[in-house]
Design brief:
Elements lengths: L13 H15 L2 E5 L3 H13 L3 E5 L2 H10 L3 E7 L8 H11 L4 E6 L6 H4 L5 E4 L4 H12 L1
Parallel strand pairs: 1-2, 1-3, 3-4, 4-5
């Protein structure tokens, strides 16, 4: 006689339980909003952020980033490029974030040679020149999201 299966009260199989657990784990990860207008660079940055253990959300410009920030209250860090199309660049976005959402941490990056860039950033803003190393950005993300 073949063994009988036992149904659980929830009716969920073992895969359903593990998927549900993975979703719960995903919700616990700090959220990073990545703002970058170059699609391939955005994909790389999103991979870097998720590889560092964070949930990553992408925006192609500052206007889209502001809309996302207005609709979410779980974003811990904004990681933005400087040079972007739209109503504001990454420096202006960083200031807008600091003014409207003071607890959110900010990382700014650029391939441009910006003189005195630290003076352009809002309080607690962090700058990484491109090309940055994934390890240094991941380290900053962990430090800022702690």
């Amino acid at each position: 006689m073949p063994p009988q299966s036992v149904k659980t009260g929830s009716g969920l199989g073992p895969w359903d339980v593990s998927c549900r657990g993975a979703d719960m784990e995903k919700q616990k990860r700090p959220v990073v909003l990545v703002v970058e207008d170059e699609p391939l660079v955005l994909m790389d940055a999103l991979d870097l952020v998720t590889g560092a253990g964070f949930e990553a959300i992408g925006a192609k410009n500052a206007d889209e980033a502001i809309r996302i920030l207005e609709n979410r209250n779980d974003i811990r860090v904004v990681f933005t490029d400087v040079n972007m199309p739209g109503s504001m660049d990454g420096i202006k976005l960083a200031h807008a974030v600091r003014n409207r959402w003071p607890p959110i941490e900010i990382i700014v990056t650029s391939g441009l040679n910006l003189a005195n860039v630290q003076e352009l950033l809002p309080e607690r803003g962090v700058f990484f020149p491109k090309p940055y190393t994934p390890a240094e950005v991941a380290s900053a993300l962990h430090r800022l999201a702690a």
